[in-house]
Specification:
With 287 residues, this protein is an alpha/beta fold. Helices cover 28% and strands 21% of the residues. Helix 3 packs antiparallel against helix 4 and helix 4 crosses helix 5. The termini are far apart.
Length: 287
């Protein structure tokens, strides 16, 4: 019986829905299963529900024992999402066929997939850009993609515009980003082999979102790009590779498209099924 390590011991009470995921030292698992997909993050339930509906065997990972998504996973692990050595041991032990981030652990998911030669929509390099607000800002600046104002500051220095300031990094730098105030839209899209297909959002906003995805090297998978509108046109505030529950519901209602199913297909390297990929656009504002 494979024992991954005591740090992977599932400390929650076991029941019919949640058998033990792996063995802690001296505590053998009752049974072994073949796990299909490893989901990093269990705070949002939409992706996990879609995986269960498809009949996938799901291992969900989250540091919070009370994460809502755990109720939808066949297996669970209580782990920090930045503990990549432990996540890699878990992926190896469960022989997953795909890894997907259900939250901010985009970089970890892409790196684990690359190490085990699993399909993944993002390269590790692109995942780093998506996962770091500063690196994303710098890359968009290099590519001359319009974006909201930002600055790097130290100490008590102020950038000279209304802003939200991050905690200092290891070098003492803080990222100051323009504070919300103007109208915003979100462009939800799915890319295949570099072809950017908007699902929500049209016109100049969709065009700028496509430029942002290209600048970050995103050729496959979902993107959700938040843009701020102004007299000089839309500017990128943030690009993510996960969608909100509201975006997912709008895509379902307006187009009959299951974006969570699209994300699972991309993570498993499977072609998108025709019944839920009917690309269209909608002039919808998604905050």
């Amino acid at each position: 019986m494979l024992s991954v390590g005591s740090q992977l011991f599932d400390a929650l009470r076991q029941d019919g829905r949640h058998p033990a995921i792996v063995a802690a030292h001296g505590f053998p698992c009752k049974r072994t299963v073949t796990v299909r997909v490893l989901v990093l993050g269990a705070q949002a339930a939409g992706l996990l529900a879609a995986a269960r509906a498809r009949g996938l065997l799901v291992v969900a990972v989250d540091p919070d024992p009370s994460a809502p998504g755990f109720a939808l996973a066949q297996r669970r692990a209580i782990l920090r999402l930045d503990d990549e050595p432990a996540l890699e041991r878990l992926a190896e032990a469960t022989r997953v066929g795909g890894v997907i981030a259900n939250g901010p652990a985009t970089g970890a998911a892409a790196r684990i997939a690359a190490r085990f030669r699993l399909p993944h929509p993002l390269s590790p390099e692109s995942a780093v850009l998506v996962g770091s607000r500063l690196r994303q800002r710098e890359r968009l600046l290099e590519a001359r993609v319009p974006q909201t104002r930002w600055a790097l500051v130290r100490g008590a220095a102020a950038p000279g515009f209304p802003c939200v300031v991050s905690a200092p990094d290891r070098k003492g730098r803080r990222l100051a980003e323009e504070a919300p105030g103007a109208a915003e839209v979100t462009v939800t899209a799915f890319s295949t082999a570099g072809e950017f297909q908007p699902l929500l959002g049209v016109g100049s906003a969709a065009a700028v979102a496509a430029r942002a995805a290209e600048a970050l090297g995103i050729e496959n998978g979902l993107t959700s790009t938040r843009l701020r509108l102004g007299a000089d046109g839309p500017r990128v505030a943030e690009l993510r590779t996960r969608v909100s529950d509201r975006e997912a519901e709008l895509c379902r209602l307006l187009h009959g498209i299951d974006v969570h199913a699209l994300a699972l297909d991309a993570a498993l390297g499977e072609p998108a099924a025709a019944e839920y990929v009917r690309f269209g656009t909608a002039d919808a504002d998604v905050a």
